[in-house]
Automatic annotation (TrEMBL):
Domain annotation Metallo-beta-lactamase: ranges: 34-245
Protein name: MBL fold metallo-hydrolase
Cofactors (names): Zn(2+)
Family per similarity comment: Belongs to the metallo-beta-lactamase superfamily.
Gene Ontology MF annotations: hydrolase activity; metal ion binding
Species per Swiss-Prot/TrEMBL record: Microvenator marinus
UniProt superkingdom: Bacteria
Pfam families per record: Lactamase_B
Spans through the membrane: none
Keyword annotations from UniProtKB, A to Z: Hydrolase, Metal-binding, Zinc
């Protein structure tokens, strides 16, 4: 089965110099976006990928990463919160029955509570990492437990232990969306491969920050480096993604913080693919 529409939108951005994201990227100021996506499934309806910020905005920022971001400042407007974004695309929040999480860092979880009725599909390794520490220790790792603690019964844990970048797990059993393990940025970081009628999209979350980290071999800047749970594993995953891209150059790669992608949806949600039929 094919996904009928695929939209990307931002829930805010931070102004930072480019070198923080791309090594040797220069001092030019960029808008680092906090992106999410909406895939429309013919039977399951609108499916959200990540829930960056709710109506309270980026007030959930963690101690460590959040401390950096707090200093820099996140630009946020009420209409950029995840629910108004979904509504702007013509759906009610109550229609969203499935949320796919790349990982559980605060800039991906702030809006989860506003979708409390949905099922959250999360790599089991990520759920364990995000829930096994004290709330304080979790914050130093970028996890804000308050965002999702009350949603435990809504979590569908995915077992990706046998999955690879080549062969992930078919989430709905119909070939439309595949969960792919991309660990390193966080313990159970997960990418989502989306099948559309005329193309495939690989939403890799924070496994790379800019798409160019994968497609142009750009090196990671300081920000993705300090944000990584394991620099070594994150580096191995990035290398696998580069190889995978060489073998599958037609698949469109999207990341959660790509500046060009953020720029393209600065004025509203970007339809990466909208099936006319
Ligand atoms: Zn992130």
């Amino acid at each position: 089965m094919n996904i009928e529409q695929f939209w990307v939108f931002h829930c805010g951005y931070s102004k930072i110099p480019r070198w923080m994201i791309v090594e040797g990227g220069g001092r030019q100021e960029i808008k680092l976006p906090f992106l999410a996506a909406l895939a429309v499934h013919p039977e399951h309806g609108p499916i959200l990928i990540d829930a960056p910020f709710g109506t309270e905005g980026p007030s959930n920022v963690g101690e460590f990463l959040g401390g950096v971001l707090r200093k820099i400042g996140v630009v946020f407007k009420d209409e950029w919160a995840v629910i108004p974004r979904i509504e702007r695309l013509g759906f009610r929040a109550s229609e969203v029955n499935h949320v796919l999480m790349t990982h559980m860092h605060f800039d991906h979880t702030g809006g989860m509570k506003s979708l409390g009725h949905a099922s959250f599909h999360i790599n089991r390794d990520e759920w364990v990492a995000a829930t096994s520490m004290s709330a304080f220790a979790a914050r130093t790792k970028g996890y804000v437990v308050e965002d999702y603690r009350a949603l435990t019964s809504r979590v569908e844990k995915l077992d990706l232990s046998g999955a690879t970048i080549e062969k992930g797990v078919d989430v709905f059993g119909d070939g439309s969306i595949e969960a792919v393990p991309l660990p390193g940025h966080s313990a159970g970081h997960t990418g989502w491969r989306i099948r559309l009628a005329d193309r495939e999209i690989f939403y890799v979350g924070d496994a790379a920050f800019s798409v160019g980290h994968i497609t142009q071999n750009q090196e990671l800047g300081i920000f993705p480096k300090i944000a990584a749970d394991s620099k070594k594993i994150a580096g191995q995953t990035l290398e696998k993604l580069r190889w995978w891209h060489r073998d599958h150059p037609d698949v469109e790669i999207l990341t959660s913080h790509d500046v060009d992608l953020g720029q393209a949806c600065m004025n509203g949600p970007l339809g990466v693919h909208v099936d006319a039929g």
